[in-house]
Amino acid sequence: MSLDIDDYIAKEVHACEYTLDxxxxxxxxxxxxxxxxxxxxxxxxxxxxNNEAPENVITVSGIGCSSRFPHYLKTYGFxxxxxxxxxxxxxxxxxxxxxxxxTVMGDxxxxxxxxxxxxxxxxxxxxxxxxxxxxxxxxxxKKQASPTSRQGTMSNTSPRGSYLEPLxxxxxxxxxTNLSFVAQTASWLPGxxxxxxxxxxxxxxxAFVRILQRCPxxxxxxxxxxxxxxxxxxxxxxxxxxxxxGILRNAPTVAHDPSDINAAxxxxxxxxxDLEPLGLLYxxxxxxTYNEVRYSHVQQSDKFAxxxxxxxxxxxxxxxxxxxxx
Length: 326
Ligand SMILES: Cc1ncc(C[n+]2csc(CCOP(=O)(O)OP(=O)(O)O)c2C)c(N)n1
Ligand code: SF4
Known about the structure:
By secondary structure, this protein is α/β, with parallel strands linked by helices. It is 32% helix and 17% strand.
């Protein structure tokens, strides 16, 4: 039996078993104990479990400690501008829909300077896994209050303690139209984090994942020092995420149907006052992706035909234009 080259490549790629080294570049230069290390490890394990070819993945980030992610994850990478990872991701998603897209941002990056892009990209429902490493502070620039800093947080921009109640990102995303996936996990729960990322990765559309992230250097007291006392509740449902509790083994588990937007909003609204929800808050698999909406009525021309048309167009400006007579 003879194989043509496409069959051969498909078979070879399928047979390939990736190791964690295949997703690793240089050793990550985050501080010791930084939650970003755990998040990177969870992403790498998730990619390996999915046998995802590194060259089929593109990681887009903004600016911040968290946004150094593409330097350490061996995929294609795009370390963009502060707050601008999401508009770049929309462009990548439209230009290269066959690539798997991972977007990584910090809380300042996404909720503050990138707030406008955040809301609109959620509404576009591009095909991407968007993870926010939320350490409740601007860390790279050495401790300024972020939108999620708790009231009273002492920082370089709030030396008397921040005045306002923090912004609630879960409540905000749950008010956006065309939303399709919202989950929350924590950087000190490796099993739960990996299961959450796996669920997000398999979702068609924009999967918004907030990761509560430890920053022992600038916010050592946030998240109760990430101890077993952290006030959390695990959300459980047959279509949700397995509540792998790790260090939070005494935390309660509550039943929550992620298709119920009203129940999700209620849980999110009480997150800061009550128990932080961990798991899948909201899921709607019926929302079309932006690519589907944008191109459903357009006959997709093949890329060679497009290139030929572009060549003809550029030739029309050339001296001695071959398309011109005489
Ligand atoms: C347009 C612009 N404004 C401000 C900055 C300075 N800056 C760099 S990172 C950062 C905040 C980083 O905080 P966050 O997004 O929460 O990420 P973390 O470092 O905590 O991971 C700021 C204000 C910048 N690089 N570009
Ligand atoms: S400053 Fe904080 S967020 Fe930045 S690398 Fe260090 S521990 Fe991580």
